[in-house]
C-alpha cells in the first residue's frame, strides 16, 4: 500500500518537473496552433529542453502504472492532486509566475486533502480492481473525448475574437483534462493487463484491449492541445485545472467503471470522500481571468 503512495508522490514530482521544463522551452519557440499538429510536433522535437521535460513526463507515466497496480483509483487521484503544490512552487521559482491569493489558498486545501486521503488507506481492507468490461470503458471514453475536443475548439474560436476579455486558460485546462481523464482510465486498464510474467502473453492481452489505442490517441491529441495551450497560458493555472478535472473524472467514473469499492469503515470512508472532494474543489476557487498587468 505504501509503495503505491511513494510511487504516486514520485509521479507528482516527475510530472511537475516535466511541465515546468516544457513551459520554459515553449517560451523560445514560435507560436503553436493545435490546428497544425505536424508543425507543432516538428517544432517541439527541435528543443532539447522540451525533450528533457517530455522524458520526465514519460517517467511519471511509468510510476503511474505502478500506482494503479497497488492503490484504488479514488485514493490515487487524491494523492495525484497533491502535485499541484510542487507545481506552483516550481512555476514560481523557475518561471517567475506569481500565484494569486486564491491559488495560495488552494495550496493549503490540497495539503489538508492529501493528509486525509493518505489517512483513509488501510492495508488489506480494499481490493484493487484489475479490469473492466472494455465496452463499458469505450462507452464512457468516446463521448468524453468528443466533449474535450469540442470544448477546446470552442475556446480556440472565442480566443480569436477581437475585444474579448483575455482568458487565463480555464477552458483549455478543462478540455485537456477530459482527454487525460480518459488516458488515466486507459492506464488503469493497461496496468491490469500486465499481470503475466510472459512478455508475449501480456502483449497479446494488452493489444487485444482498447487501452493501447486510447493511450495513443490521447497521447497524440493531448500533446498538441496541451502544448499550444501551455504556450499561451500560465503553467501555474492551466496545469492545476487540467489535473483537477482529470482527477475528478478518474475518481468518479473510474471507480464506477472498474467496480472498486470504497472503504467500509465509516471513518475511513469519511476521510476518503472528504479528502477527494476538498482536493477537487480547488477548481472552484481558481480565478477565471488573469489580473491585467499595469502598463
List the helices and strands and how they pair.
Elements: H1 2-26, H2 37-44, H3 48-70, H4 73-80, H5 83-94, H6 101-119, H7 134-159, H8 170-193, H9 199-207, H10 211-232, H11 235-257, H12 266-280, H13 282-285
Give a quick set of tags describing it.
globular; mainly alpha; 295 residues; 0% strand
Detailed description of the structure:
This protein is mainly α. 74% of the residues lie in helices and 0% in strands. It has 13 helices and no strands. Helix 4 packs across helix 12 (266-280). The protein is globular. It starts with a helix and ends in a 10-residue tail after the last helix.
The sequence of SSEs as H and E is HHHHHHHHHHHHH
Silhouette: globular
Q: What does the largest sheet look like? A: none
Average pLDDT confidence is 80
The termini sit apart by 53 Å
Number of strands: 0
Helix share of residues? Answer: over 70%
In short:
The chain has 295 residues and is mainly alpha-helical. It contains 13 helices and no strands.
